[in-house]
Amino acid sequence: EIQQHCIDLGVLKLPEAQMEEEQEREVSREIEREREGQRQPPNANQAMHSVHLDLENFVNTGHISQFSRAFVPAFTAVEQSFAARSDSRVYSPFILATVDFHTTIRSASSQGKMDHYLRPVQWVLSGKMDQDRVLVLLSPFEADHLMPYIRVSKFVHLHVYTPCTSERMKPTNDLRFHSIPPVPDSWTPPWDLIDQLNVFAGQLYLRDYESYLRLRRFLGIQVNDLPNSVRTAVRRNLVTVDALQEIGNTIRDSPLPSVMMLLAIRRRGLPFAETHMGRILQGHQLTEEDF
Question: Are 240 and 274 in contact (CB under 8 A)?
């Protein structure tokens, strides 16, 4: 019947290859939806939003007290998930998250429960803590509430941020895409902090070859260091406790276990083996032609 309709319309030859590719894409989407459907988060009550006075003070004065309870190191913001139980200490203390960014549900008494409620990174506040540059992750509520004060601040800039999860995405991780107030021409991105921010946010594609080299140094691994079970876990999209345990036994003082688990949490079951990060975690060595 379909073929007869095509003949009636003057279509004598069907683009079979395109149809097959479209069918493959549809099947892929169905698989992704099915995979996502298998990971329903447990029921939880949404936390109430609030803006801490110390955060307002940071916007207005550029000062963060070392005793403030308004901020926590970003990687300890997932300490109730598997991702940060063992090696959050290796990350920079100058990537902070606000309490409102961190607190998404009222109770997280269940072990690993926060894996389902890890907030995505969208708003990043840059400034200084004493003499060191600092990045602070804000919740959308805080960004909206503080916007009038940020616009006139002389101490901080608010940056729109999105992790690069597709090869076709334009990188925004230099924090210059949209800043409030605009950063001066002389402003330089704090790449050492941004590299770790990208890891926390679940970035899959690196900006350039230099970013790749910095990440390799940060992870502290060589190409042949990775055990075969780890490569298999990434390739098959099965990041398991056993695979992470083997990494910890093989590579000491490396954030690799939490990097793998963070990616698994951020992807929510979607595969990432063929991305830059996936290839790195499988032990592949990238070249300048890959960027």
Answer: no
If you search the block for the tokens 């959050």, which residue do you land on?
Answer: 88
Residues with Cβ within 8 Å of 66's Cβ and at least 6 positions away in sequence, in order, are none
3-state SS class at 123: strand
Residues 176/97/251/221 CA torsion (nearest 10 deg): 0
- Is a pLDDT exceeding 50 seen at residue 44? yes
Query: How do beta strands 132-138 and 95-98 pair?
Result: parallel
- Classify residue 73 by burial, with Cβ atoms within 10 Å: 0-12, 13-18, 19+: middle
Q: Angle at Cα 218 formed by Cα 81 and Cα 131, nearest 5°? A: 90
Q: Terminal CA-to-CA distance of the chain, rounded, Å?
A: 48
- The answer to whether the CB of 259 falls within 8 A of the CB of 280 is no
Distance CA 106, CA 103 (A): 7
pLDDT digits (tens, 9 = 90+) for 236-262: 544 555 555 555 555 555 677 777 777
